[in-house]
Specification:
Layout (H helix, E strand, L loop, with lengths): L1 H13 L5 H11 L22 E8 L6 H9 L17 E7 L2 E7 L10 H14 L4 E7 L5 H8 L7 E6 L10 H11 L4 E4 L5 H12 L19 H17 L8 E12 L3 E12 L2 H8 L4 H18 L2 E10 L7 H6 L4
Parallel strand pairs: 1-3, 1-4, 4-5, 5-6, 8-9
Antiparallel strand pairs: 2-3, 7-8
Bound molecules: guanosine-5'-triphosphate.
Length: about 350
C-alpha cells in the first residue's frame, strides 16, 4: 500500500512533464495543458493484491448522440459541455475515473463532421481521427434504433486491432422496445463490434454496467494519474468551456455553432477572505453583428446572465471566488480561416 502511494506521489511530480510511453500517450490524447483536480468523488478501493489496470477509452459518434453526456456520467462530474445544439464539443477532453483497480482515461471527441469542409471542421475531424488510432478501446455512440449514414462514416474510421464497443444510447427514448432486437441483429450482421450495449447515458445502472464491460479491454499496467484526478485539462480551459456552454444554452437555436470563447485573462489573486480568488476576462467571438446583438440581449440582459451562470458554476467547480468579465467581438469568417482557428486554440 505504502509502495503504491509512493509511486503515486512520484506520478504527481511527473504530471507536468510526464516521461516514457505512458506520458507520451497521455500528452497525445489530452493536449498539452496543465493538470487540475476539480472535485472529490467517492472512489472504490481495489481488492488487495488486484493488479492495476489502466487504458485510454475514446468516445466517438456523430454530433448530438450524447457523447458528452456519457463522458460526464462516466467521470461523475461535468467535464465536457453538453447542450441540445449539435457540435458543441470542440476539443478532445480527457476525463479520468478510477474504479477499484481499474483507471479509465476517457477521450471525448467532437462530433465527426461530414457536411461542410471549413477549416474548423477539418480541425474537428483531425481530432476524431487522432483519438481512435491511439487508444485501448473505442466507444462508438449511436442513438438506439437508428444507424444513419453519418454513423456509418464514423464506424469506417475504426482501426482494425482496436476493440470497439457499440453504445446504443438514448434507450429511454425508444418507445417500442420490441423493435430494438431486430435492429441490433441487423447492426450485428453489418458490423463486428466487440460488444453491443443498448443503454441510456442518463441511467446510473447502465453506466455501472458499461464500466464493467469497458474495464475488460484495459491492459494491466500502472495507473497514469492519481486515483482522485478527474481531468488533466487546465482550469483556464474549463473556464472557457463553461462560458461556451452557458452561451449556447442561453441563446438556443439563435446562435450558429461557429461562435467561440477565448479566455484573455485567468489570474489567481491572493485573498485572505475567500482563500482562492480568480479573475477571468473572456471574449465571445461571433460571426456577425446580428449574432453579437443576440448574445448581448435586451439592455445587456443575456450577456449578464451568461456571466452570472458561468461564474456560479465555476465557483463550485474550482472551489474559488470568481469574477468574470465578458466581451463580445465580431470576427467574420473565422471558422474558415486556418490561422484564426489555430489562434483560438484549435489544433
Ligand atoms: N433522453 C436522453 N437524452 C440524452 C441521452 N444522452 C444524451 N441525451 C441528450 O442528447 C443531447 C445531446 O447530448 P450531448 O452529450 O451534448 O451530445 P454530443 O454527442 O456530445 O454532441 P456534440 O457535442 O454535438 O458532438 C442533450 O440534450 C442530452 O441531454 C439519453 O441517454 N437519453
Amino acid at each position: 500500500m505504502r509502495d503504491r502511494r509512493r509511486r503515486h506521489r512520484r506520478a504527481r511530480h511527473r504530471r507536468l512533464a510526464p516521461r516514457g510511453r505512458a506520458g507520451r500517450r497521455r500528452r497525445r490524447a489530452a493536449g498539452a495543458e496543465g493538470p487540475v483536480q476539480v472535485s472529490e468523488t467517492p472512489i472504490e478501493t481495489p481488492m488487495p493484491g488486484e493488479p492495476q489496470r489502466c487504458g485510454l477509452v475514446a468516445i466517438v459518434g456523430k454530433p448530438n448522440v450524447g457523447k458528452s453526456t456519457l463522458l460526464n456520467a462516466l467521470v461523475g462530474q461535468k467535464i465536457s459541455i453538453t447542450s441540445r445544439k449539435a457540435q458543441t464539443t470542440r476539443h478532445r477532453i480527457t476525463g479520468i475515473r478510477t474504479v477499484g483497480a481499474v483507471q479509465y482515461v476517457f477521450v471525448d471527441t467532437p462530433g465527426f463532421q461530414t457536411r461542410h469542409s471549413t477549416a474548423l471542421n477539418r480541425s474537428l475531424n483531425k481530432a476524431v481521427l487522432g483519438a481512435v488510432g491511439d487508444v485501448d478501446v473505442v466507444l462508438v455512440v449511436v442513438e438506439a434504433g437508428k444507424l444513419a449514414p453519418a454513423d456509418e462514416k464514423v464506424i469506417q474510421l475504426l482501426k482494425p486491432g482496436i476493440p470497439a464497443v457499440l453504445v446504443a444510447n438514448k434507450l429511454d427514448q425508444v418507445n417500442r422496445r420490441a423493435e430494438l432486437a431486430p435492429w441490433l441483429q441487423d447492426v450485428q450482421a453489418r458490423h463486428a463490434f466487440a460488444e453491443y450495449v443498448p443503454m441510456s447515458a442518463k441511467n446510473a445502472k447502465d453506466i455501472e454496467r458499461l464500466f464493467a464491460i469497458v474495464g475488460k479491454f484495459l491492459p494491466e499496467q500502472p495507473w497514469f494519474y492519481e486515483e482522485d484526478e478527474l481531468t488533466d485539462r487546465s482550469e483556464k480551459f474549463l473556464a472557457s468551456e463553461t462560458v461556451r456552454e452557458k452561451l449556447f444554452r442561453l441563446t438556443g437555436e439563435e446562435l450558429p455553432y461557429t461562435s467561440t470563447v477565448v479566455i484573455d485573462k485567468f489570474d489567481e489573486e491572493p485573498s485572505p477572505k475567500h482563500g482562492r480568488f480568480i479573475r477571468i476576462a473572456a471574449t465571445i467571438i461571433v460571426e456577425r453583428d446580428g449574432h453579437k446583438a443576440i448574445v448581448i440581449g435586451d439592455k445587456g440582459e443575456r450577456l449578464k446572465r451568461i456571466g452570472t451562470e458561468a461564474r456560479q458554476e465555476l465557483e463550485k467547480l474550482l472551489g474559488a471566488k470568481v469574477f468574470i468579465e465578458l466581451w463580445v467581438k465580431v470576427r467574420t469568417g473565422w471558422a474558415d480561416d486556418e490561422a484564426r482557428v489555430r489562434s483560438f486554440g484549435y489544433e
